[in-house]
Amino acid sequence: MRHVAVFCGANTGKDPLILEAAKAVGRTIAERGMGVVYGGGHVGLMGAVADAALQAGGEVLGVIPGFMVEKELAHAGLTKLMIVHDMHERKMRMHERSDAVIALPGGFGTMDELFELLTWRQLGLHAKPIGLLNVNGFYTPLLEQIVRMERDGFLHGPTRVLHSDDVGALIDRLMVEVVMP
């Protein structure tokens, strides 16, 4: 596993443990010799992940739509910043440049990114592992909903969504599941 896409909020949220978890994700990925691929912003959890990875000597690729650059949201200190046309292209480029996905807590944008990659996986468009960092039970209701969707016959077979409340354990599980080309 060489690069991990990280989906997370452009805000820090109200729970300080979530902000600390974002920093731990960036730092841990870098310390394990992998690169972070993320949304390219300098704000919120996104900025915290990027800054922690950079401080730990890691490589960080940001993928950001031009309209966000115009709003001065782009992180200026990244290893590489890729400016794309729109949000859909952003997700596609992040997917292309990563071997696995970690979703931290976030809002609609994070859920959009997560659900698109889950859908692509279910359709057989990729086999990359997807993990949820379940800080303070943030993703517990979603995990319960996935079980319900499986039980009620709305998902094609078991949907493999890895999850943990521990960053290191989640990355370990992703590394076991990654399918390299």
Report on this model:
By secondary structure, the protein is of the alpha/beta class. It has one domain (3-177): Rossmann fold, CATH 3.40.50.450. Helices cover 45% and strands 17% of the residues. The chain has 7 helices and 7 strands, in the order E-H-E-H-E-H-E-H-E-H-E-H-E-H. It has helices at residues 16-31, 44-55, 66-70, 87-96, 108-122, 140-151, 167-177, and strands at 3-7, 35-38, 60-65, 80-84, 100-103, 130-133, 162-164. It has a 7-stranded parallel beta sheet. Strand 6, helix 6 (140-151) and strand 7 form a beta-alpha-beta unit. Helix 1 (16-31) runs parallel beside helix 2 (44-55). It is globular, with a radius of gyration of 15 Å. It starts with a strand and ends with a helix. The mean pLDDT is 94.
Could you list some keywords that capture this structure?
globular; Rossmann fold; 181 residues; alpha/beta
